[in-house]
Design a protein that fits this description.
303 residues; alpha+beta; Lipocalin; disordered N terminus
Length: 303
Amino acid sequence: MSKLGFNITYSVILLLLSNNTFSQLTQYSQADSSLLARQAQLNQENNDSKPLAETAKEDKGYEITFESLYQYGNIRGFLQTPAGGTPGSSSAERPTFKELGIDSIGTVTGKLSFINADYNIYLGMNYISISDSALLSRDLISRTMLFAAGSRVNSDLELSFYSLGCQFRNLINIPSDSFSIDPIAEIALFDFGYRLAGVGGPEVSRYYSKVGGRLGLALNWDISEKLFVSAQALAPIPISNTPYIWSVDLMGKYLLYSKDDLRLFFNMGLIYEIIDYEDNQELPNHIRAEMGPMATMGLAIHF
């Protein structure tokens, strides 16, 4: 074979090998692109399967929420308020809310929360302030003062309580992305105010604050990306001379607006609460208020 023929044959072989190598590299590149596209699709499907709020929380690791609710419902109970625990300085388990003309109340609540993957730390307020006027059907003694039957009495009452608590997320392991059960522990401050004033007659007042503890559970169910249901129950830690406050609520939440980290929810549900405080005096201060079932609704903002 001549030198020219050898060079031509060698060039053709190199060209064929180059074309084959290029074809294989192209196939490999297309395969890699397909794998990357499939992985991106799987990641998107995984994010789409999570609740919107949960996905947003994972993006930055935490979220801050504020919610405010208005509650309205029935109230029953009494406000036994003696003077220094002296026997005879107060009528037993009186005055009742009913004889003061109070059978329903409207209250306002507020809650500020910091939430991450493991904890929901919150400050809560339940503001309960009531004023009314009624004619007494029988004699009433409160803090040694006599309010005679048939007289008109004006009342100003406060039964507010404030809380600092923590909801322990993921402490109870449940194999579900849409349902969870979280333990709760909190400190509650009960703020009591009491003023009775007879029209042109006697007037008495009493104010104090007491601290107690509560434990409970929260159940959360993410029905869809926009609809959520929660239930919560809290019971007092039984310590003498502290306020006992029970709370049970069922709440539905609907996502009204969402953009980036900002979300706005409409909340609506039912709540039942009991406040019971009794001290250790011979004739104790004994306050009992049963509130509910109360209808509640309001807004929550997450950011």
